Amino acid sequence: MSLQKARIKAFEDLLGQDVINMGQLQKLAFNGVPEEKGLRSLVWKILLHYLPQEKDAWQSTLLKKRQLYQQFIDEIIVSPGGPSDHPLNISPDSSWSVYFKDNEVLLQIDKDVRRLCPDINFFQSATEFPCLEIVNSNGVKRLHKRVEQSVLSYSTLERRGLGVATLSNEIRRSSSVTSGDYTPLNEGCEAHWEVVERMLFLYAKLNPGQGYVQGMNEIIGPIYHTFACDTNKDYRKFAEADCFFCFTNLMAEIRDFFIRTLDETESGINYMMTKLCECLKKNDRDISERLERQELRPQYYSFRWLTLLLSQEFSLPDVERIWDSLFADSHRFNFLIYICCAMILLVRNNLLSGDFASNVKLLQNFPPMDVSLILNKAVDISKT
Q1: What's the pLDDT tens digit per position in 312-355?
Q2: pTM for the full model?
Q3: Confidence check: pLDDT of 84 > 80
Q4: Dihedral sign computed on CA atoms, order 325, 331, 336, 341
Q5: Region class of 54: left (phi > 0), else alpha (psi between -120 and 50), else beta
Q6: Phi–psi pair at 191, nearest 5 degrees
Q7: 204, 211 contact by CB (below 8 A)
Q8: Three-state SS for 169?
Q9: Do residues 238 and 67 touch, judged by C-beta distance below 8 A?
């Protein structure tokens, strides 16, 4: 039996048990989950605590969550009950005020999702399972249409000097909303980026304390891609709902990275960057001192690595492989520190001979490298 077949069998045996042994699953997934037979898609659902360990509860969990998601779509997007008061009502609680605020968020999401993973054509291609109430509404219910219309109505209101609400600079600057890379598909069809846009808008509406922060599109993208490419058609059909809840669970763990006021707390991003510096110093004092002397601070390169879980540093297949290990880490995101440290150590010679400018450039545009080299190095570091 080939090594890959043996790995697939090991996963199938483990997932075939009545109660999934989480420790064993983490151990197995840490070394990479095969894409075959929808295994990665299923394992991620368990590791992200969307599916319970008790197998006989899977069906009822999925049914309940998918119905709930459909309810979110119906209530927030399909028939949100539209603004009922006067558009010039300046009260912050007015439904028009909320509508305009939503549109500002939507504009940012729209811009971000149209640029998702441009090196593959997945996100601009059509989903097999479009949201029918939305794609067959003559454009009325489509979020990107709403963005286009809101930009038009903002500019009309501005021209008339009505000045409804205070317009964000973002909207003022955005004279053309379709400047993104991806264009919407025709009536009846829906591209994958439009599905991602809907999930992020719903997330922002349902989490008003946090809302949407730029970069969340890079976190949701690989999860959605994994679920939408599942070999099991029943799972593919509900990729959107399943992805939404897995993303929500993941964000509950890393949301503090995105909240500026928590930067200095133990769950904040500065704490993570400090841990990375300590890890580097422990494993290679020369490199650590070199970067310190050059005043090459971790904010210049590792802020993005850590907040976006390396999703922008590697190709999508490599990101998904890295995330197998991150999601399987029982001390979630400790291993992320080791991976980042490994990346720096693997380019140490260049860093030792480079000046500040070339070193910043190197770390901000990490060179292509076999991801297993990085992961193996990270495992070595984790044992020191």
Answers
A1: 999 999 999 999 999 999 888 899 999 999 999 999 999 999 99
A2: 0.88
A3: no
A4: negative
A5: beta
A6: -80, 160
A7: yes
A8: helix
A9: no
